[in-house]
Design brief:
The structure holds two protein chains of two kinds.
Chain A lengths: L5 H15 L1 H21 L4 H24 L4 H6 L1 H6 L5 H30 L4 H29 L5 H28 L5 H31 L2
Helix pairs in contact in A: 1-6, 2-3, 2-6, 3-6, 3-7, 3-8, 6-7, 6-9, 7-8, 7-9, 8-9
Chain B lengths: L10 E11 L2 E12 L2 E6 L6 H9 L6 E6 L2 E2 L4 H6 L1 E4 L11 H11 L8 H7 L15 H14 L4 E5 L7 H16 L3 E5 L10 E6 L2
Parallel strand pairs in B: 3-8, 3-9, 6-7, 7-8
Antiparallel strand pairs in B: 1-2, 1-4, 4-5
Helix pairs in contact in B: 3-5, 4-5
Classes of the chains: A mainly alpha, B alpha/beta.
Chain lengths: ~230, ~210
């Protein structure tokens, strides 16, 4: 199938590659499920305890699982030379990067969001709390993907990028973690949670509009120092 | 087959390029210009800075000093116009191991968003990969992966070809076909900048030789 639009071509290429490496795309979801299910074993199976730690646990696990999935982003393109071709395309680099993040979100973020209600049940969260958890992840996880991709773009040229990437990206993840888990905790305590969700939405809008430009410039810089 | 008009006159000009890594001068004050219908052949031993120079010319790297102009305009100023006219082939082929030959080729051709000169099927036939359309990149040899990258020369409607060791990993027959393609490109008013350890001589082609190192 040919796609004459570079944006669509990029999106489909990345999705096709991801679905051909099934083991790799399953890893973040499996990590997410395993980490969350360890908490009842390690702390207590008591529903009242799980109810109180549940929102934070799910949010932290989602954040770490996205961080884990970032390691492979852009790596193979950088090594096999496709990145050079992408950067030399006359099509705007920022739009190509947006396509890549959307593809990355589809294979890492989206499965986490879809499976999160089940994990909410595992941690004895109430139905309306699970609903808020779902919305908060829906708004927050794409932000994690985008900001993480900026970190990857900046560190891709380095040999030992893993630790530096976490140091660079984790501080930027903190606001989303706070608003995300706080929205869910407020819902559990029957307090208003719209404010936190609106903050998440605002952060998502900022990340969506700015991160493609930053990623494309950062990759340009990384590629020029090979 | 070729939609280019000979009347268009293009010029790539480099002025006083300087590039250093760790206080070592890799490129020391190089100037040249190439115009439509000309070939620039960059010679030099390993490590003399050929690849660095080509990466600077294509805009992937910035020189510490000096400037590169395309039709009189700095390439940094009008990247989109320059990229539309550029086909760059580096050391790495950009072939994805997970994608088939046809998928790789289709991706390359749609990446520019411009109409292609030839369709992917005739490009596959030209590089001799007929029968391998559906083989994933990881099952192909290095030479075959190079051939996939070379299809871009047929499909992209660009004027300026910047090629880093285009003959690496290719057999004699393919090298012959490629030389013919180079000549046709230059005769049609294209510009060709290349490095090679292999001696090449294109009949009646205005060739500038640049010795590095």
């Amino acid at each position: 199938m040919t796609h004459s639009n570079p944006f669509v071509a990029m999106l489909f290429r990345d999705l096709r590659i991801a679905f051909r490496q099934r083991a790799e795309i399953m890893l973040p979801v499996i990590f997410f499920v395993v980490v969350v299910s360890l908490f009842p074993l390690a702390i207590s199976p008591d529903p009242t305890v799980l109810k109180s730690i549940g929102p934070g646990v799910i949010w932290i696990a989602a954040l770490l699982s996205i961080l884990l999935s970032l390691q492979s982003l852009f790596r193979s393109d950088f090594n096999d030379g496709s990145m050079e071709q992408i950067l030399l395309s006359p099509f705007p680099g920022s739009l190509l990067m947006l396509a890549r993040i959307i593809a990355q979100w589809c294979v890492t973020g989206l499965p986490l969001i879809i499976i999160s209600p089940l994990l909410g049940l595992l941690l004895h969260l109430d139905a309306h709390v699970i609903w808020v958890l779902f919305i908060s992840l829906l708004l927050g996880v794409p932000y994690l993907n985008m900001v993480g991709a900026i970190g990857v773009a900046l560190t891709i040229g380095l040999r030992q990028a893993g630790a530096l990437l976490s140091l660079l990206v984790l501080p930027l993840y903190v606001p989303v973690l706070i608003f995300g888990s706080n929205a869910v905790i407020s819902a559990a305590n029957h307090l208003p949670y719209n404010g936190q969700l609106l903050w998440l939405a605002a952060l998502l809008v900022i990340a969506t509009t700015l991160s493609p430009f930053v990623i494309s410039s950062a990759l340009r810089v990384s590629c020029s120092y090979r | 087959m070729f939609s280019t008009t000979v009347s268009d006159n293009y010029q790539l000009r480099a002025e006083n390029l300087i590039y250093e890594i760790n206080d070592k001068l890799i490129i020391n004050g190089i100037s040249f210009s190439v115009t439509s219908g000309e070939m620039l052949f960059i010679e030099g031993s390993n490590g003399s800075g050929k690849t660095t120079l080509l990466r600077i010319l294509s805009g992937l790297m910035q020189a510490d000093e000096g400037k590169i102009t395309w039709n009189g305009k700095n390439i940094e100023e009008d990247r989109i116009e320059f990229n539309q006219q550029l086909t760059y082939l580096g050391h790495s082929t950009g072939v994805k191991a997970e994608l088939s030959t046809l998928e790789n080729i289709n991706f390359f051709s749609s990446l520019s968003g411009l109409p292609q000169k030839e369709n992917s099927q005739s490009a596959i036939e030209w590089v001799g990969l007929k029968g391998y359309e559906n083989s994933p990149g990881r099952h192909l040899s290095y030479g075959q992966q190079r051939r996939i990258a070379l299809t871009r020369l047929l499909m992209e409607p660009s004027q300026l070809w910047i090629l880093d060791e285009p003959f690496a990993g290719l057999d004699k027959k393919m090298i012959g076909a490629l030389e013919k393609r180079f000549k046709a490109h230059v005769d049609n008013g294209g510009l060709l900048v290349l490095t090679s350890h292999q001696h090449i001589e294109l009949d009646q082609v205005n060739t500038t030789r640049l010795q590095l190192g």
